[in-house]
């Protein structure tokens, strides 16, 4: 099978397309023929971690220095291990490989039916492999963080970085929960943020929201670039400051909830660009610039 391999840290040029042996599912694993995967900011950051740091991390947390890249995937179950109960050959699935040496940027990948290090669920019928592949990381991150506060109908929530991967899901989820949503983004992305349901948008290049007169019940920093103290003048006395820098979890229950929203048309994917497997290095280069809108997809069809 073809796969993108990274054996050392560095620039996108360290990513190489290689021919590898197709994996064989273990007792509790499913073999997925990948139709689409992604390149996230996390992938870029991990690629750049010096090996002198990465190797000790591997001993501590049980993963090896990144070999096959990619943490999100969508595809078709090609084979199953004898202990697998929830999936059958031919099922359309999507999820993550987090903690499993990565592995999404390949034609095939084995993932456990159940795992504390990643999640896999059946794909809704009303969404394509390309659109669903970008949902797990950004969707679960936004959901996990938003659930830290009990959003009430009509509360005012500001999403800083509303045009990014986490931000686009955070804006849609907050709107679903009944909040009045204000999105912060650049002028190029104002219409995009409006299109996913934001009630109000602010161009950060022209207006400093921290000097505004609107008081918010919650501020969600979806890009990790602001602090609670910087928001004190616009945050309700009992308001909440949320950030992507907070620890998050991947849970099957999160994916099931997101599936319900997908099936009912309550959330949609925002895709900036698509690349083929042999252009993953170029995708990394683009993500590294820090200006992507929503998500970046790797197609393997």
Can you offer a commentary on this structure?
The chain is α/β, with parallel strands linked by helices and 301 residues long. The chain contains 8 helices and 14 strands. It has helices spanning 41-47, 51-61, 129-133, 135-146, 165-176, 190-195, 252-263, 280-288; strands spanning 2-6, 15-19, 29-38, 72-80, 92-96, 108-112, 120-122, 156-160, 180-185, 200-203, 216-221, 235-243, 271-276, 295-299. Strand 9, helix 6 and strand 10 form a beta-alpha-beta unit. Helix 4 (135-146) crosses helix 5 (165-176). The radius of gyration is 19 Å and the shape is globular. Mean pLDDT is 93; it is low at 59-63.
- What share of residues are in beta strands? 25-35%
Apparent shape = globular
Provide the structure class: alpha/beta
**Distance separating the two termini:** 13 Å
Estimate the helix proportion, in percent: 10-25%
Assembly annotation: single chain
Low-confidence stretches: 59-63
Written as H for each helix and E for each strand, in order along the chain, the element string is EEEHHEEEEHHEHEHEEEHEHE
Total strands: the figure is 14
Task: Output the number of helix runs.
Answer: 8
The chain-level mean pLDDT equals 93
What profile does the largest beta sheet have?
Answer: 7 strands, mixed
The radius of gyration is 19 Å
